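Table 4 source record.
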Amino acid sequence: MTPFMGKDFLLSNDTAKTLYHDYAAKMPIIDYHCHISPQEIAEDRKFETITQVWLGGDHYKWRQMRSNGIEEKYITGNASDYEKFLAWAETLQKAIGNPLYHWSHLELQRYFGYEGTLSPETAEEVWNICNKKLAEADFSARNLIKKSNVTAICTTDDPVDSLAWHKMIAEDPAFDVQVLPAWRPDKAMNLEKPDYLDYLTKLSAVSGVKIESFTDLKEALRVRLAFFASMGCKISDHGLEYVMYAPASEEEVAAIFDKRLSGEIPSLAEQNKFKYAFLVFMGREYHRLDWAMQLHYGVRRDNNTRIFKAIGPDTGFDCINSVNCSAELAAFLDALAQTEELPRTVLYSINPIDNAAIDTIIGCFQDSSAVGKLQHGSAWWFNDNKAGMVEQMTSLANLGLLANFIGMLTDSRSFLSYTRHEYFRRILCNLIGTWVENGEYPADMEFLGKMVQDISYNNTLHYFKFTNN
């Protein structure tokens, strides 16, 4: 029997073991899409308990706790940290086949040196071990990042954000990891939201542009784009229910925006026309700035209305959206490509049935301006598991060039989540190793070793044009 999560965890053959241990394992990490707090990095937060660093904000774990019948009090409520930890320990033991089981134990092994398994029976022991470690100086937020061999992090930031914490981090010579903002303008695009006009007031204030028309909105965004660029931003990101293709005249889009300014909510068709015009405008700006554009789509958010009203968004009530928007996605990319203003673009769908569509679409828009200019992003959210990663990379290999893939990201709010890169690298090496062992690719270890290092780190460094500290 193979030992539980031992040295060769997920590595089923000799080629895979060599590729991981000799090449992939030692590579640094660039976390180019995450949701951790720049304030906590700037202030070098210390965590008093494992619950604070492990369960706070982690809606992946919250979903499973609810599935286990745990009362909300022990998830997002006012129960003590220890009570919440016990609830998680009870849940985790049942999570066979779930990536959270592997992620959690990788974190216990790598950060806390705990080689056992977490269960109700071991919970008190694990609680004490972890909290004792967290009390040490080198377990602060910054030291956890350094301990994880991370060289760059891109947070997720709204156009109205002051980026004050990023500035503080950048000016601190004691911390040499790049912490850069990533532009996330969803609130400026989603004009159907009840608080949209309040948001425009904030955007007007920080940009110095009084927003009374769609032209004004674009100018305000240009001002903020320039500010983000001055702070080292190189990446944008859009969270979409689906990608729309709804071209309309400038006059019609302006009228739709004016309608919203008057307090009316535009129809769904009007919303799509506005959002399409917004995305095309943004794409052209990213091309001008030489930024990469990320499109995350295929998600339906906040499905449980009662709980959403009680505890807010990003709390574990989102699901896969089955809208097929492949034709619209291709048409949107083509609209930018026609004027040679298509930026480097990374596409993610939360729906795994979109893998082949994405891989064939990106092949239509590759060119010599960048290696792998269009990317099929890492298996995202509900696909962020062993099967999902294998499916995504196999599809990319079948229909594109896996060697140019920009690899893994955490998409996380936790400073312990960098072991997800290890998880990904082990799966990557096993996939490639299996093809080699099956005689499907020659055992050219020099090339293969470089390829897994590129996918693990180098491709990301070059694609986003980060500097190598």
